[in-house]
Amino acid sequence: MTKAARVAISNQKGGVGKTTVAINVAGALNRRGHDVLFVDLDPQGNATEGLGLEDEYEAEPPTLFDALTDHEIREDVDAMVVTHKEMDVLPSNIDMTSVEPELTMAMRGRERLGKVLDALDAEYDVILIDCPPYLGNLTDNALIGAGNVLIPALAESTSKRALEILFDQIEVLEAEFDTQVRDLGVVANRVETTNEADQMLSWFENAFTDVPVWEVRKRVALQRAFSAGCSIFEFDADCDMAAVFDDVAAELERQFNLKEVTV
Question: Which domain covers residue 156, as residue numbers?
Fold first, then answer.
């Protein structure tokens, strides 16, 4: 079985639209013919609810919490995956609000997600992991388990410090776990027409010379798609920002040697 490409979508700074980016990248990959698993690793469950899976957030065990904390239960992870019209989803659950201390005490507690994904029987082309908006055991699990990170960020000056903190943490993980976390690109999100935004876009381009920087302009259609429980490709494929997310998907295809299979 070919191992799926794994991508953590992470920025510990809250309010950057990380989940919206994650859902729309998943929608773009689906539109290009790929089988996608969306993992909602955020205890707040924003993606789970944003994909219309509110009942799953309140579901009884076993859930993702149990898969992360019990090595026997993680073998049943396929049964926890639910179907969405654009992707499969491993939903978050209210019990995830208690998982950080459990992972702190657990043996190899920052490597649990990778083992959960290894236990999947279903085959996917891409696994996208929507991280919590903070650094901790869950985000460490995503970065280590994926080995790749796509970074949403706002075009404002506070993003500089947030990105420094993220890369400092990645450097620590790479040294501690003898691994590599590859930066796939930056999605400048909810960009508005301001001098600060223009300056930050230039800063992104200068700071990230080896990877793409995509510009997602603020659009009401993106929020409406989220409220409708789908990506922009299902809600309004004519929105101009759909082309940006399609570019992100095309770049992931290139970096992971995936072939577009759209009919």
Answer: 5-256
